[in-house]
Amino acid sequence: MKTAITELLNIQYPIFQGGMAWVAEHTLAAAVSNAGGLGIIASGGAPCDYVREEVRKTKALTDKPFGVNIMLMNPEADAIAHMVIEEGVKVVTTGAGNPEKYFPMWKEAGIKILPVVASVGLARRMEKYGADALIAEGCESGGHIGEMTTMTLVPQVAQAVHVPVVAAGGIGDGHGVAAAFMLGAEGVQVGTRFLLADETQIHENYKEKVLKAKDIDSQVTGRSTGHPIRVLRNPMTRKYLKMEAEGATLEELEVMTLGSLRRAVVEGDVKEGSLMAGQVAGLLNKRQTCKEIIEEMMTEAVDVMEEAAGRFCKR
Fold first, then answer.
1. What is the CATH topology of the domain spanning 7-201+285-313?
2. What does pTM read for this prediction?
3. Is 48 in contact with 84 (CB distance < 8 Å)?
4. Which residue intervals of the chain bear CATH 3.20.20.70?
5. Which of 95, 126, 131, 255 is 20 to 30 Å from the Cα of 273, by its Cα?
6. What is the pLDDT of residues 60-76, one digit of tens each?
């Protein structure tokens, strides 16, 4: 399938793998890129040297394009921003902040820049400063979220800018891909479904929780702090929300959640760990390889669109 995104990034399918901290490492990123999508390495809060090593390991596993997601709240964001140039990374996505100060050096290095945006205002600003495309992420997604839903955000961003838009949040099958295209997107970013990929190096306990999740099993913590995060329900989230409702300070809440994502991903602690996952988790019911996930989603998307076109054209 050819879209403005596949042409821009020289990839086979317009599917990105989300930059999930502690999850999106070289094994997963390379598998997605080799399957025709865009694999992404997540910097999260990791040091620059770790991210550099992940880039080099990915290069050893694929000759296809891949990207690095830079979490701008990372204390070493400046170092990582320079490292991607040194290592010849071709695509950068950004989150949790404004990356415009890095644009000139990234543009000079020929890097394609795709910031994650949660509002039309930020989308317009990123386009003004030279973004090559934008990832419009709705609050259905796992992890750090904004306020707008994918259904409302994507068409407004697509109509407000002239660069291609990638839809993210709540997309886990071909129906979601087709819907994103109908809203004006040229590609999609998928996170939660890739948690169940065979190549994803997360603890088995985490995968089982995602696999067994129902439609109402995700909830948002941290709304009162200004840093809302969507996760799967567990004892930690219940305790967090209780403390939040009772007026706990940001510092008190941060102490409780410090290292909680790593506990879930690496140690398999599904009670006190932070099980970041989107609302689409309730839709997922099987494990597959990255190649199977991508090809199934694209085949289903084409079938859905052709069926819809045939049905409505008869009227």
1. TIM Barrel (3.20.20)
2. 0.92
3. no
4. 7-201+285-313
5. 95
6. 999 999 999 999 988 99
